[in-house]
Design a protein that fits this description.
The chain is of the alpha+beta class. It has one domain (about 5-125): 60s Ribosomal Protein L30, Chain: A, CATH 3.30.1330. It is about 25% helix and about 30% strand. The protein has helices at about 50-65, 85-95; strands spanning about 5, 20-25, 25-35, 35, 40-45, 75-80, 105-110, 120-125. The strands form 2 sheets. Strands 1-2-3-8-6-7 form a 6-stranded mixed sheet, covered by helices on one side. It has a two-stranded antiparallel ribbon with strand order 4-5. Strand 6 (about 75-80), helix 2 and strand 7 form a beta-alpha-beta unit. The protein is globular, with a radius of gyration of 14 Å.
């Protein structure tokens, strides 16, 4: 099985030794997205809701670069430095996703890159 590296300027560039996404067959593994503005690589201004929204905008850009969309995501993993923000994640997800929703896990963590409050990675399956 071949693998293809997915890259787009419409999402933040990698800040380490990883790719934005890797496509293997019809499955795309999307690296964790944090609330960076792609053009500046700075954390988006605003509250945690604005940051969660930026994460899903970045996730959307990577999915589209891979030839799919959010509707093709089968699994999300949400990492939060404060699980009290879980309700905000649900609210923002409702703006970006329609039923049927992907499977999802939410994990509380001590810290994330650039001290952001949220990171989301995904697995997408293309038809």
């Amino acid at each position: 099985m071949s693998k293809e590296i997915i890259a787009t300027q419409n999402a933040p560039g990698a800040i380490g030794a990883y790719s934005q996404a890797v496509k293997a067959g019809n499955t795309v593994y999307v690296s964790g997205q944090i609330p960076l503005v792609p053009s500046t690589m700075e954390v988006v201004e605003g509250d945690v809701v604005a940051q969660i929204r930026q994460v899903f905008e970045n996730l959307t850009a990577v999915c589209e670069a891979a030839g799919g969309g959010l509707h093709d995501i089968v699994k999300l993993t949400v990492y939060l430095t404060d699980l009290k923000d879980f309700g905000h994640v649900n609210d923002v997800m409702a703006e970006f996703f329609k039923e049927p929703y992907p499977a999802r896990a939410a994990i509380g963590v001590a810290q994330l890159p650039k001290d952001v409050p949220v990171e989301v990675d995904a697995i997408m399956v293309l038809a």
